[in-house]
Amino acid sequence: MLDVTKINLQEIRDEGWDSHMEKVISFMAKYDIEVPSMEGKYVIPKRRLFRGKGLQVSNLHHFRVEVFLSVIDLQLQELDNRFPEISKDLLVCMSCLNPTNRFALFDKAKLIELAKFYPNEFSSSKMIFFNHTLQNFIVGMRKDERFWNLKTLSELSMKLVETGLSKTHDRVYLLLKLVLLLPVATASVERVFSGMTQVKDKLRNSMGDQMFDCLITYLENDLFLNVSMNDIVNRYQNMKTRREQL
Q1: Do 199 and 211 form a contact (C-beta atoms < 8 A)?
Q2: Could you give the 3-state DSSP secondary structure of residue 122?
């Protein structure tokens, strides 16, 4: 899906301008909006004069290059940033544990590659036997009717625990847990960096204790709402008394 999306965006970038303009002109004609001449000079709105002062470009250049192509380039860049080659490989490998259609996407080679992303949990000595472990796992899953109607990785994880097979196939279950934890860990990191943009200002512009203290209270605000003001004051007074005694 990622590759298809990028190919479609590239095709729109290369060949989609004319069809896009036809839709825009049709929309403007429908609502009696004046269509500017593409050969005319682009007039910068007053509120943007300070940004583009002195630039003389045609309407065609502005709308095609500075708007149409720029937006598509931003989308392509965003896809490349969020899904580099290693992330794409990781997503493909993760999908091989999907239980849909009786594990139709199962691929031992890709799951072995996935396990190599976690050398602390899957050492080189354990990887020697992991191929046989995966073979035993898939044979058991495809013969067990309890696993035939599963749709998601989380359902597979719960069913393995429910049936006690998480202990029988402990290595595969460990890999499954790591796969399920990955989106949560990624989202947590992104949440922290998003929070930094809200907390960071001129007074807190360095990664010191003050910055981390503010980040903790901002990100874990639900937890701190349960802390009363009196508890904070008492804690501060106790700390102050101890410092004076020292």
Answers
A1: yes
A2: coil
Hunting for tokens 């095609």 — which residue is that?
64
Q: What is the pLDDT of residues 17-44, one digit of tens each?
A: 999 999 999 999 999 999 999 999 988 7
Q: Is residue 110 within 8 Å of 92, Cβ to Cβ?
A: yes
Q: Which of 24-33, 88-97, 216-225 has the highest mean pLDDT?
A: 24-33
Residue carrying the six token digits 């999908």:
95
Q: Which residue's entry shows tokens 């200002």?
A: 201
| Domain boundaries defined on the chain | 2-82, 97-185, 200-245
Element at 137 (helix H, strand E):
helix 124-143
Structure-token pair, residue 4 = 């298809």
Count of residues making up the chain: 246
In angstroms, rounded to a whole number, what is the distance separating the alpha carbons of residues 16 and 65?
13
